[in-house]
Amino acid sequence: MVNFIWVGLTIIGLVFAAVNGRMEEVNEAVFKSAGEAVTICIGLVSVLVFWLGLMRIAEEAGLLRQLARLVEPFAKRLFPEVPSGHPAMGYILSNMTANFFGLGNAATPLGIKAMEELKRLNGGKAEASRSMITFLAINTSSITLIPTTVLAIRFSYHSASPAEIIAPTIFATACSTMAAIAIDRFFYIRRRKKEGK
Amino acid sequence: MAWLSLMSMWLIPAMIAFILLYGTFKKVPTYESFVEGGKEGIHIAVSIIPYLIGMMVAIGIFRASGALDSLVEWVRPVLLWIGLPPEVFPLAIIRPISGNAALGMVSDLIAVHGPDSFIGRLASVMQGSTDTTFYVLTVYFGAVGIKKMGDALKVGLWADVAGFIAALVIVSWMF
């Protein structure tokens, strides 16, 4: 699926550029985008190092395990394949907490750790497990309390009420998260039917 | 609003203080653990680079070639019928693919149409209603070496559609 989209975007773009005579812009875009990607990654180093370092302390102090135990009954229904008290659950929950407070940069390393643990649970296979798909579904639909960057832009363009979009944003993000959970379940049931279980 | 921004401001420092104090209390060698954990961060950030370059170059080509603009022209009648301003459509396409590109589009839409216009509000809500599906997928699966992603992409994109519809409905209804 990703292979298809990736090649599709590129080839369609190149064909359009040929027809529209925009090869110069495309050449520029190739190098500019590649540079932007590296800049993003380098920018991630600082945050990743700091948060992963801090989270190692939390992990060794047993904090993640305790957090997991606290919210387990709810999360267990979402991730039935993660055993009780497993560190994966702790990472999943702290990732959600970070996302909820708009700490996108803090959430990323936690999400990656959660994925690592889920992969270990799945026997180290290079294939996405059911729990991984559920985790991604919830993650990509983002449960954010305050959309800080958008607020900042609205402020800078002199909105009469920059904060008025907070309530509708919470509504929309709640809808997308609930939809994500429902769609994830739907696809899971469909997969099982296909496998004849 | 005041307490919300206060909370956002205090959350990170409070987390740092709590983890350090709790770690000390539990007799964790805090600084050594921090350094050990931090080393992992470098490795992860570097290993993401090829994933991001691949995706961002493809999107860059798609935008620069004018393919995106043509796509917008092509679907304009359908969009007007739904009630979605065609100007916002590229944002709906880019939002799941690139968070930074989408943020650029939101700033652009707000600059052109004004933050308190229908388009400005809709763009603001859409930006916050979902996360960057492709980015999350590439980074999370890429970092741990998942090659077969199953239904993850489909689920993520359908959830985005649900979020956009919710954004359109609530903004039309509220303002």
From TrEMBL, chain A:
**Keyword Transmembrane helix carried by entry:** yes
Q: Which InterPro entries match?
A: Gate_dom
Record-annotated membrane-spanning stretches:
33-55, 133-153, 165-188
Instruction: Provide the Nucleoside transporter/FeoB GTPase Gate domain boundaries.
Output: 42-151
What keyword terms does UniProt attach to this protein? Membrane, Transmembrane, Transmembrane helix
UniProt key word Membrane: yes
Name it. Spore maturation protein
